[in-house]
Amino acid sequence: MKFRNIFFIIIILISNLFSDEKNKITLQLDWLHQFQFAGYYIAKEKGFYKNYNLNVDIREFSNDINLVDNVLNNESTYSIGKSSLVIDRINNKDIVLLAAIYQTSPITLISLKSSNIKTLHDLKNKKLMITSDAKDAASINSMIKSQGIMSNDIDFIPHSFKLDDLISGKIDAMGCYLSNEPYLLENKNIEFNLFTPSDYGFDFYSGILFTSKNELNKNPKRIKNFYNASIKGWNYAFSNIEETAKLIYEKYNTQNKTLDSLIYEGQVLKKLSKTEEGEYLGFIDYKKIDEIRRLYSVLGFGNNTSIEFNNFIFNSQKVILNKLENNYVKNNKFSLLINKNNRPFSYFDNNQITGIEVDLLKLISKKIDVKYNIIEKPKNPLIFNNLKTNSVHLEFNYSIDQVNLSKTIYSKPLIKIPMGIATSHDKNIITNLSILKGQKLAILKNSHIYKELKSKYNYIDFILVDTKKEAFSLIYKEKVFGFIDNILSLSHHMIKEKLSTVKISGTLPYNLEVRVSTNKENFVLIDVINKMIPLIKSEEREEIAKKYQLIIFEKINDYSWIYKYIFPLLLAILLILVINSKMRKEIRKRKNAEEALKDYANRDSLTKIYNRAKIDSVIEKEIKDFKILKEPFSIIFFDIDDFKLINDNFGHIKGDNVLIKISSLVTVNIRGTDIIGRWGGEEFIIILPKTTSDKAFVFANNLRELISNNNFDINKPLTISVGISEYSENDTKKDLIKRADEAMYYVKKQGKNAVKIL
Predict the structure, then answer these.
(1) DSSP E strand boundaries for 391-439
(2) Higher-scoring residue by pLDDT: 505, 568
(3) What is the DSSP code (8-state) at residue 537?
(4) Are 212 and 88 in contact (CB under 8 A)?
(5) Which residues contact 660 (CB under 8 A, 6 or more apart)?
(6) Is the pTM of this model over 0.85?
(7) Residue 468 and residue 482: Cα distance in Å, rounded?
(8) Residues 58/60/62/66 CA torsion (nearest 10 deg)
(9) Chain segment 500-523, per-residue pLDDT in tens
């Protein structure tokens, strides 16, 4: 018995050893340790890689390393590169791009002002120190060649990674990052010139994470896990710059950088990631890659203009299937059973089947590569059961209560549609069903929320109906107050039947959950679809829902009786008046829409207060006004203390609610002339016209106390750190904001929950 136990222990240990070996991977950097690679350090140190059973070794760059060959020869599993990776793909090297951390490249050329290199032309016959991949990067190459300078006009020197080589005059210029060397030279009071590709119109990716096609084919799940953990690390790093900088300072500081320089680097790189502008972290656009490819072709790096870019960019949204699931999807055909009269979910339009179900099936097919056809479901299921087909049948389900769980299995919800209430036009807006005590409401017999509504609102008389037509007929005859159904079905039925005397009077705190169901033996299909659901972006769901939102709110009058009795002349006059009226309404509607769009573009999507771009423009206007009127104005820059703990302890939804509540609270407690905006994350700016910093200080302290005394449902007081700056003549917008920001950070370092003027 003992021998057998020992044998099993040995087997387990060997198994674990092989498992660890299989998931031991190497990430090769393209530079020395610094904030440039912060997300990967965080993923390793915070255990994000470990959570996916990944053992990651992160290695620094040296001049004897060829990043691409290293990956192709399995010396590195993953690596970081620049836009020159496109050249490698043009040259038929089987690499795969996973993520571009920097949407705008931080690579730049730098020279000292004392060297008299004022333009790129001055680099001719000069020594330029640069890494090989930076030299080949599209942005640097395009910038140099766009000025008519050839590669052999410049003496390229391998990079030593020593800024002293530039300071001492050993070289004339060097390739560097915007986030590094400029900061170091400023601290040494050494003047310099920068030659940045984006200033010349060449704005390309950098910090590109890549691997080999062999890795993608052999270990697709490992790639996905590494990608997810890395992106999680980057999100954390950019959300916690100071903490991340401290980690790098203590554990990855081979260059002996100061903590301040690492924090500065993180702030610059976060802007270049463009996450604050709405880009999702690591985004790679096929169009931009193709633009880089065409540019390289123009620069003479390759003439292959018909190159296939399939599998060159990793699709992070594609579902990774195991062997069983992959074989199941590959070896089966799938048929969607639909009801062609179920508008807007499935119906005929211009002799084609369309609707939400069709769009959702296309989305599923896109993410898991299933082939499908669409079959109309017979009215008599017995007929269908007797048909022998080779397809796996699936259909969309809207009510779990009515599923035969002994035979049927269903997925998690793919999309949720709000429930609403339709009434006649003379009824008020309904905000809560509790105000309808004693009223009659129609509801479909198969409605998934009937039982819950009946139990919760037992003082309402719910009338069960078989069809929507029956329900609307009861509204028309004034036999019921309204009809409850999902808002899309309500609006489409109202339009289809031209019901001009009804409207949607409100939505309810319930959703119609759309799921996929199939026979229980096809459980693998549901497993695959459930894997896909978390990868559906909110924008994809919103796009499908918006496509079918046709809600009627205005009464449609029928003036046909006029045409039968009014004389032709009066008819013509009436038509002219109607046309003119419609034109005026249309013009007014378009103007309102334009204004609404402008306002929407200026609003933060979460809090609905002004966004960073709008705050920027308001400050610029205040500066212009100051130069004319000489009236003072100040800004308040405040940050929520320990906001990360709220997200960590209560979740991001609670964190978002806190941001919304704070925005609302401040908005109602500032003057009508004051303006508040969200600067980014948990940072806010308030612009106070005609206000000195002393007055702003009093207001800020009142605001700080107001927030700390308010209840934000987080089981503890909420505090803010506040910085104030007053505009001084000759200040730039950057100067003003920087002072307020520094004042706020001073408060943070001194213990938080205070106000500082700078």
Answers:
(1) 391-397, 408-410, 415-424
(2) 505
(3) -
(4) no
(5) 606, 607, 608
(6) no
(7) 12
(8) 30
(9) 788 888 888 888 888 888 888 888
First to last CA, the chain: 77
* Pairing state between β 95-102 and 127-129: unpaired
Among candidate residues 181, 357, 622, 682, the one labeled active-site is 682
- Tell me, rounded to whole angstroms, the distance of Cα 660 from its chain centroid: 19
Considering only CA atoms, which of 141, 417, 459 is closest in space to residue 295? 141
The residue whose two tokens read 């099993």 is 8
668-684 pLDDT, tens digit each: 888 888 899 998 889 99
d(Cα 56, Cα 562) in Å, to the nearest integer?
79
Sorted by sequence, the CB contacts under 8 Å of residue 573 that are 6+ apart come out as none
Angle (CA) 755-609-282 rounded to 5° is 95
Maximum separation of any 2 CA atoms in the chain, in Å: 109
Written as one letter, the residue type at 130 is: I
Token pair listed for 103? 């949407």
Is residue 288 classed as helix, strand or coil in its secondary structure? helix
Q: How many other C-beta atoms lie within 10 A of the C-beta of residue 642? A: 13
Among residues 182, 181, 81, the alpha carbon closest in space to that of 137 is found at: 81
> Is residue 308 among the annotated active site residues?
no
Tabulate helix, strand, coil % of the chain (nearest 5): 45, 20, 30
Tokens of 417: 């549609």
Question: What amino acid occupies position 11?
Answer: I
Q: Is the pLDDT of residue 198 over 50?
A: yes
Q: Do 422 and 503 meet the contact criterion of CB atoms below 8 Å apart?
A: yes
